[in-house]
Amino acid sequence: MRILTSYLLLSILSSCHGLSENFDEKLTLSPVSKNELRVDFRFNSEREFNRKTESGDYLTFPRIIQELLSRYSVRKLTVTMAHGRWNLIGWGLPPQPSSPTGAQVFAEFEADQQEDADERMKFLVEALNGVLCTSISHINVITSPEFIVLKNHGGETSVHKRYGVLSGETTCTENLTRLRKLLACKENGISTLLHPSKLYNSVYHSSHLVVEQQCDKDQCNSKMEVGVSVVMRNPSQKTQRHWSLADVFERKLGSQCKVARSSKIHVIGTTGEITTTDVKNLTTINGEEPFELYIPITDISMKQSVVKAWSSQGGFEQKHGVLTVHITNDESASEIHVSQIIPYYVHLRYSKINWKCDKNGVPRIEKIFKNSKSLEAPTLLQYKMKLSAGQTCELTIPFDKQLLRLEQYPPDANHGMHIPAASVYIQKSTSTYTIHSNAILVLLPVPDFSMPFNVICFVATAFALVFGPIQLYSTLWLAPVVKKSQWGRKIHRAILLAIIAFCLYAHMMDINLNEIRRGIETYFEKLNELK
Amino acid sequence: MAKDKKLQTNQEVEKEQENGSPFSDFWVPISAAIAVRAVCASYSDLFEERVELTSVVYSFEKLKDSIAMVDDGLNPFEAKNMHFPPLTLHLFRFLLNTAPTMILPLFISIDVATTWILSSAADVVWRQTHGSSSIRKLIFSLYAFNPITIVSTGILSLTVIQNFVSAVILLSLVTDRPTICAILIGAWSSFTIYPFILISCLVFRSNGSIVKFLSLVLVSALTTITFVGINYLLNNQSLNFLGPVYASILNFSSIQPNSGLYWYFFVQIFEHFRSFYTMSFVVLYFFMPIPITFLIRKDTILHFTIIGFLVSIFFPYPTLNQVSLLLAFLPVHDVYKKHFRYTILIAGTIVSTVFLMPVMWHMWIVSSSGNANFFFGTTIVYNVALINLVMDMIFVYSRRQIDLEYSDALKKNTKMDFAFY
């Protein structure tokens, strides 16, 4: 009761400054097949405040996020992390914003110049590393993609967009812990079900953070969504007719989030009907008597039809390769935007890129090819086209793999490096969404890491082989050898031979050379004393 | 079928040679050369990606990529690994758009013309030293039937054009037309910078007058500037081609495995030494012709050969075809023949490394049974062999000067030693 009153007091206080904050949490459980369960957590936080009269009070909205937004003038930011691959055929539409394998960052900045946005992106990525405990410093950043890459980052042109994907980044418990720290209720309510050991022991895991800020003069509205989507196989090892929360999460829901505006659990049934449980309305919930919920094991009959995309790799050697992106449309015509990032370590064969389509042949394609100037910046290929129902198109991108410099290779160079997944944005008359194909692991040619010194020596020697003779022939005079008495040379040779012979003798007789040296030293000392 | 035809023509050549008619002297070898190149072009897909025969500045496939970008309204110099000057781009874009079928015949005729010009140049030199006899036929077949030149023409490598320019420079050098020489050297340097040191050959065509030599250098430099200006105008008055075209040659920035000396070095070098080595290699390269010019004062042709070899050895993005013109020209230096020390060693090394390169490449890149050191080993040995050849040429020159001085007093195997000047 005391907490409640204080909360009320605070909210009254803050409303004087034009501040209001809300927090909603939602959990959706939907069986996608007889042994697979899809779990979606969504935590939404909202904050309305006046920029001038703001007092710096934060109730449910995480302060760090607000600081990121203000410091780097971020209009909108999407960060996703995923591992595993979304099964478009079996599971339908992927959680939006859809995430490719690895980490993905899309940021929109308010900035006067491109350079400002570049710099802000650099700092933002580092800041995100701190906030989310990721290691994405070497993310490939693309400057302002022109076609739509992600659904929630639409065609707004007044902002500077920066987009980057890092396919090698793995997501794990630390990231989840940090995401939980952003929530208003970290220990109560639905967030208690964010139990890493079950969530990461799954066929697909993705988490995202979407932040948005809109200001109308001084009145600002910040929104944050934290989402975790998981597809689990066999959530319960027992043979039974339903799964319980305890089976799925190894946890029970024993508390409520009191500050949340709404707190709901949706269970989706066979025909798509939704059973909603409002956790806020449960009065008896506490530690001793936890809330339990049963999810029927069903085979879903109503599957959403989605556009499918996947990537494959061709080529058999470490120098040349082919990346093929396949896109199959579903039963209705749609407009698609395809974006493919090509990292700096493969170079495109531009004249050989081509589209192949079945049915009505290749439709009219608008394409954009975007280069980034700096040495390690990636290239972006974007295509916009209309596909008729059921049409399949193939984008073939031949490339040359580059031999990099020694320090550009990761520690496990023979593992290969990733080409990020293609992103496909689909626009239909009824809906829009994005999907991602899979990332490709390319084997780059690798130098031998063990012998830089040898190589430097060899090449420098080859160079010396040029300079030695040139120097010799241009400074000295080549002349026939004239025979004359060479006593000096003969004595010199004799001394050398004697030394060699002595060394050999000493070696054979196991004479300690140090002893001899010491003997000579003492001899010299004696000589000195004589003086 | 085609191969049979080739064999037949070869046999015909041999038969006709005995008769010595003008038909056999001229038309048969030329048509055989054309036929071989045409046959090779039909198998070009086997060779066009070969690392020894293509490089970023000579590959026709890469050129097509750049042209495709220009066609799409993009600026190819913002892409990575595009190193063709705008002149090359627009010239070949025009050819590809108007008469794509004519490109192969054009390359073949350029290569055969190179052969003809080279053998004429050799003949001029030969007649000066040996009187009436002719070396034309030997030089012709050495260049025309060198498998490397044949394959390079088949895959439309731009080295064919480079060799053509090189042959014309040689011909105008031996026929004493220094102005043409200077203009051509200037024009060629505007593509790959490195050939500019060939200008040192014109010291011997200036009649000892330093003013004349400097004016020739000026002509050459003006030609280069004119060409850069043309490039600038063709590139929509933008200078952004300077970086990818010229700076990449001078700072070795886009180095990839090739048959050259530097590629592995610049992969392995530590980052904080990179700029030091880059600068020292470039400075030393442009310094090299000075002592050589002082040294080899009495033989212009040998001097040209040496400088030409240095241009191809130290170029950052070379192909095997770069030296084939000079190798074919070697028999002209007949007077030095008896003094060469490592002939068999160098010839054997070059041949075996050229054969080993694809093997090592396969082991490294395709079957992964070897590593980069294997391929590096063959390329470095190949380059050391070429370097030894050049150094041997400097030696034979010095040796020959002694012969001329002492005439009959020396036996062939007299010991030589260095003495202070």
Write up what this structure looks like.
The complex is a heterodimer of chains A (531) and B (421). Chain A has 531 residues and is of the alpha+beta class. Chain A folds into 2 domains: 20-295, no CATH class; 308-406 and 413-442, Immunoglobulin-like, CATH 2.60.40.740. Helices cover 24% and strands 34% of the residues of chain A. Chain A has helices spanning 2-16, 63-71, 88-91, 114-132, 173-181, 196-199, 245-249, 452-475, 487-508, 513-530, and strands spanning 20-33, 36-50, 74-84, 102-109, 140-143, 160-166, 204-216, 219-233, 242-244, 262-268, 274-278, 294-296, 308-314, 320-328, 334-342, 346-348, 354-357, 366-370, 379-387, 392-401, 417-419, 423-427, 432-436, 440-442, 476-480. In chain A, the strands form 5 sheets. Chain A has a 10-stranded mixed sheet with strand order 5-6-4-3-7-8-2-1-10-11. The longest helix of chain A is centred in the last third of the chain and has 24 residues, at 452-475. The mean pLDDT of chain A is 83. Chain B has 19 helices and 1 strand. Chain B is mainly α and 421 residues long. The longest helix of chain B has 35 residues, at 372-406. In chain B, helix 1 (2-19) runs antiparallel to helix 2 (22-42) and helix 4 packs across helix 5. Chain B has one domain. The interface between A and B is large, with 53 and 69 residues. Strand 25 (476-480) of chain A pairs antiparallel with strand 1 (416-420) of chain B, so a sheet runs across the interface.
